[in-house]
Amino acid sequence: MTLEACTELVRSQDPDRFGAVLVARPEDRPALITLYALNLEIARAPLQSDEPMLAEMRLQWWIDRLAEMGTGKAPPLHDVLTPLWEVWGKSAGQAVPLAEARRRDCEREPLAGPDAVVDYVTDTAGRLMGLAAERLGAPAEARRVVADQALGAGLAAWLRALPRLQPLRLGLDQPRPADAVALAGIARDALRRAARARHLLPRRATAALYPGPRVLHFLAGVLRGDINCFSETPDITEFQRRAALAGLALTGRWWR
């Protein structure tokens, strides 16, 4: 039950966040790795059964363990929860709302439109980035900036994943191109707001705020109508991924 298990999980399943972790201070990396490993586990818990009740039982197990950790009770030995407890302690209980937000995934209930997607992304990707940024020194007065960055990055990631989400009934209730365009516009505007207020955040928080490679390029393609989010996911090459992370490491520019 070591940090290495969490590291391998994030490296293999969330390469962009893994790359960003390597940019963080060495003393901050365990907190990010364990948080991101937890996020992967609670995101996939509702997908491990097609039966809503069984899916919710799997998710509830995570919610209960996190709630117990929040009261100071150590979790059972576990590849993710044990390292999480060692690094976060009682603060791991702050992740309960992050897990609660996945309940709708258990029901395989599509989202009704852009407003519902914004709410969902705020409760998932938004909470995740908020926890990570706070751990890396983001001050209280910068919470709105972090929320904007999280919304922009989270919506872009959600739109990229839409071809996989739609068949699972986790996307939009109807494949309306206008909804995808609206969401891309909301994401772009949120990223621009965050960039304008970047001075409120310390460089230490860079790793928590990284939105991933070619985010604005992708959003621009959706806005122009060049990308149909319901049927295609533009590839990100390994070169593009490495180049974006190298730029992050060299400049500390998490904004776009």
From TrEMBL:
InterPro entries: Isoprenoid_synthase_dom_sf, Squ/phyt_synthse
Official protein name in the record: Squalene/phytoene synthase family protein
Source organism of the structure: Paracoccus benzoatiresistens
Superkingdom field: Bacteria
